[in-house]
Design goal:
There is one protein chain. This protein is of the alpha/beta class. The chain is about 35% helix and about 20% strand. It has one domain (about 5-220): 3-Layer(aba) Sandwich (Rossmann fold), CATH 3.40.50.150. It has helices at about 5-10, 15-30, 50-55, 65-75, 115-125, 140-150, 160-170, 195-200; strands at about 35-40, 60-65, 80-85, 100-105, 125-135, 170-180, 215-220. It has a 7-stranded mixed β-sheet, sandwiched between helices. The longest helix is centred in the N-terminal third of the chain and has 20 residues, at about 15-30.
């Protein structure tokens, strides 16, 4: 079976840290809320779809890339039962008010923020939750990213931009957690990653969402989106 880039790079020490942190935040949310149906947008090969389903939640996993979906299909049944769908996150093919929760990890920055958040609102039931991550324009990593990478989609929005759009389309921000302060790229296996992860924890850097390199958002749908927005 064809190799999948993200499966490979997430096995690095830095990739492991990111997955661990995101899993921890998702698990914490699930423990505090009653969720029966969840949509995992840009699911990849099931890095989060499978663990979420193991909580007894009915998960629909969608991605545009055939390669990770084949990987997820191979795991399905042995590790979890996930409904797999191929589709575009910019045009999610589901009925309105279909889900209690939508999860979108490390995908938001590739999408049109307003259009995507409005779509999510429409697909969620009232009081449903949107869980997603975003790179923060107002952080130190933004400057290094602009210099080192040709891809400029990340770090387009700052924390306040995203909160404003969320509220505009009918969400209320319930929780924000900052992370990814560690000064290494995702493919790094530096022995210092554990040390910086420890620093991030003891210095409580997760509380500094407005300047954190990446932010984990939990937003609750409180009203239908305004057709004018």
């Amino acid at each position: 079976m064809e190799d999948y880039y993200w499966d490979i790079i997430n096995k690095t020490k830095m990739g492991g840290y990111l997955t661990r942190k995101e899993r921890e935040l998702i698990d914490s949310f699930i423990e505090d809320n009653i969720i029966t149906t969840c949509l995992d947008v840009a699911c990849g090969s099931g890095r989060f779809s499978i663990p979420i389903s193991q909580h007894g939640i009915n998960v629909v996993a969608i991605d545009y890339d055939f390669v990770p979906l084949r990987k997820l299909k191979a795991k399905n049944g042995s590790e979890a039962s996930v409904q797999i769908c191929r589709g575009d996150a910019n045009m999610l093919p589901f009925k309105k008010s279909s889900f209690d929760c939508i999860v979108s990890i490390e995908a938001f920055d590739y999408l049109d923020a307003k259009n995507y958040l409005k779509q999510c609102n429409e697909l969620l039931k009232i009081n449903g939750y949107l869980i997603f991550t975003s790179a923060n324009n107002n952080s130190y990593k933004k400057f290094f990213h602009q210099i080192l990478y040709k891809q400029k989609t990340f770090y387009r929005y700052n924390f306040h931009d995203i909160v404003f759009i969320l509220e505009k389309v009918g969400f209320k921000v319930e929780k924000c957690t900052g992370y990814n302060w560690i000064p290494f790229k995702r493919n790094s296996n530096s022995i210092l990653i554990g040390f910086f992860e420890f620093l991030e924890k003891i210095l409580l850097l997760g509380h500094f969402s407005t300047i954190s390199p990446w932010v984990f958002f939990v937003a609750k749908k409180i009203e239908e989106p305004d057709e004018k927005c």
